[in-house]
Amino acid sequence: MEVLLPHSLEEALAMKAEHPEATPIAGGTDLMVDLNFGRRRPAVMIDLDRVGELASWQQENGHVFLGAGLTYATIVREMPEFKPLVQASRSVGSPQIRNRGTVGGNLGTASPAGDALPVLAACDADVVVSSRARGERSMPWHAFLTGPKKTALAPDELIIGARWPLRRGPGSFSKIGTRNAMVISVASVCLVFDEENARVKVALGSVGPTILRATEAEQHIAAAMASSGAWQDRSISIPDQVIDEFSDLVAAAAKPLDDVRGTAAYRRHGCRVLARRALGWALNERRLPAWL
Amino acid sequence: MVVRVKINDDWREAETWPGSSLLTFLRERLGLYGSKNACEQGECGSCSVWLDGTLVCSCLVLAAQAHEREVRTVEGVTAIDRLHPIQEAFVEAGAVQCGFCTPGFIVAVADLLQKDPHPSPATVREALSGNLCRCTGYQKILDAVSLAAGRMARGT
Question: Fewer CB within 10 Å, N- or C-terminus of chain B?
């Protein structure tokens, strides 16, 4: 076994080109468990911990770019205006885990329970990857996450980060688990409003082979708000029946399985409850002057 | 591979298997047994150390990732001749029973009080959410944190 220690992205990409079989390691919060328990023995590992270029974020041309090496602790500290992302980040593991775990790790591991992933999906994020041979390319999150623990990353590529268009409007991330910390979610929901385009976007985690969007529910609530004039006049309230229909459609979008963390029925019910709460929070929040 | 780390202000180096964790490196290569090996999956916090000043589980850091970097362990918290005020508070409050989780808690509490000398009860609970104790039921640990915070703020 060999560990390569690049100090720059250029060096890291050159190493990945030379050793396409190499396993990248950043925070190590997933990979180290497999190493410690003897479940994985990669011949070569590339440590991305000291590749500074990956650990930054910026806003540019109406987009936000999130580097793959950004830890959840850094997101919580530096990005308070991105509330759903901060809520998801703060729900990851424990302080020790948040100090190490990265968004790139969530993307690379591609578990449907990765807490940052429903946020990226609800924001219509693109995943940016790079190789020495072909340079940078990006693809929508759903093209990158091809299945449970499967991605479209080529062997000579590294994940660079995620980019999404900045949108104005309230939103939240919430998840169900057995306690407030150190929990792999049983079900999670990210809901964001896009006020300019009169859209509501809902993404679900841990209730399918990969992250899911509840598109029918999204269209239903957006249309109901359009016909009642609620997009323009935020004081117009949404009838309970519409909220019920929305929550049921979110639950129907889930494709859960029974497993050790919960039954399919419980997960579906969880999606319904989380969706109803998330919509309620957002509707209340958009009546606040901050969004006017 | 040879890993060289600045540990508690001293540079140390040792040969290690490239796949070994920082925890294994500390315990089995450098003889620093303060950081405990319990879960090896980041759940329990018993192996908490600082890597370049950041609180981490040393079982989830590859020893090679700490190469040429700075690590502080629970051994680096204590002065040679006396306990740290946090350790004294743990003893006095009865926050130590079997003691296996204690080094991890001492490190996590020290990390918290460095950043926030007067943490609210909710802040303490969140800060210690990555450290498991199977004996105390946590209340005495929370008592110890508030005792230590009070004394450290008064400089006693």
Answer: C
Report residue A149 as tokens.
Answer: 């623990």
Considering the domain delimited by A1-49, tell me its CATH architecture: 2-Layer Sandwich (3.30)
Q: Is the ipTM of this complex over 0.95?
A: yes
Residues in CB range of A95: below 8 A, 6 or more apart: A73, B55, B108, B111, B126, B127, B129, B130
Output DSSP code: residue B73.
Answer: -
- Of B60, B65, B129, which is closest to A180 when you measure between CB atoms? B129
Q: Does A184 touch chain B (CB under 8 A)?
A: no
Render pLDDT for A66-96 as a digit per residue (tens, 0 to 9): 999 999 999 999 999 999 999 999 999 999 9
A37 Cβ under 8 Å from any chain B Cβ: yes
pLDDT, one tens digit per residue, over B90-139 is 999 999 999 999 999 999 999 999 999 999 999 999 999 999 999 999 99
DSSP B88: H
Residue B103 identity: P
CA angle A50, A184, B38 (to 5 degrees): 70
Whole-model pTM: value is 0.96
Query: Cα(A173)–Cα(A278) distance, rounded to whole angstroms?
Result: 8
A171-291 CATH: 3.30.390.50
Domains and CATH numbers, chain B: 2-75 (3.10.20.30), 85-154 (1.10.150.120)
